[in-house]
Amino acid sequence: MSRSDGPLxxxxxxxxxxxxxxxxxxALAAARLGMKTHIxxxxxxxPAFDVTPRKTVADYDDEPSLAAFAAAVDVVTYExxxxxxxxxxxxxxxxxxxxxxxALAVAQDRLAEKAxxxxxxxxxxxxxxxxxxxxxxxxxxxxxxxxxxKTTRLGYDGKxxxxxxxxxxxxxxxxxxxxxxxxxxxxxxxxxxxxxxVARGLDGKTAAFEPAxxxxxxxxxxxxxxxxxVSSKTASKAVETATAIAKALDYxxxxxxxxxxxxxxxxxxxxxxxxxxxxxxWTEAVSITDQFEQxxxxxxxxPLGDPSRLADVVMENLIGDEVLAVPQALKRRSRPQLYGKAxxxxxxxxxxxxxxxxxxxxx
Length: 363
Ligand code: AMP
Description:
single chain; 11 helices; 363 residues; nine-stranded antiparallel sheet; four-stranded parallel sheet; alpha+beta; binds adenosine monophosphate
């Protein structure tokens, strides 16, 4: 199928790589549009398996299973950015992969991501590739202290990174993360962290949700508040930047872009996620079209929906045992979404609650 082909009809089968909560919420949205989902995940306990009519439990390097999956679906998407490149290439040869393999390649590797953003004149914190301890020492002089040393791949929720506050921290940080490929970033003394979720359709049209203001606890997103308490100029700039990234990637689907807002009011991109994003979960409670439906529409070649917001909202992640208090603590204007995970562990995202306020409109 090429891009000129029409929209996928209701009843089509959407293949989703990954069976976590994002896959689960994508499957629920797909069902509302009359689509069937087929979820592929190596973990038989995947939360998305509860809500999908079709599933494959197999590893991402299992070619016969990937081939059977490709044959059984009309389009392939994914709910996590660490889909192995070989699996993505294998599937892309057989069925449309949306977003495309280039979005994965850029988002999987912090260095590729920063290089891509820099080429596209999108500001990021000063950074350098760190092949060895000697380069780390010289780049620390160049970039300055404090700085953050990160693995280029497979880091999330603060995993795979060390903050270097003084020169004597450098050796321990390097020893903890090497021999994985590393990148050093200047530490951004940010005022706030905000993010934008943007969608781009098969026809190239875009629709962005308003920025969310994010707070983290123990490196894990705890709360997203919308409207973000930023100037309208900053909000527009963030939306403009996220939209430019989607265009530069020739992207199809929903993309999350995380920003630092520096104390001087400058926006720097921290990272991009080629998927629906935790900081976009607020959209399911208060947007005309939420991020999950928007992603399904985009990858099926349907027109994008209206991302307008109907009320103010605060999304709170429920981490570990916090989920157990939901039945007693739930307020009337709160909408819970629990992921059905069998086991709650410290640091594990178990669900979220959207607390719906009045409508004040964007500032
Ligand atoms: P990341 O996995 O890169 O998104 O980092 C997780 C969190 O660590 C971010 O949301 C920030 O709160 C913090 N962080 C990461 N990189 C930096 C940086 N260069 N400067 C300041 N804080 C950072």
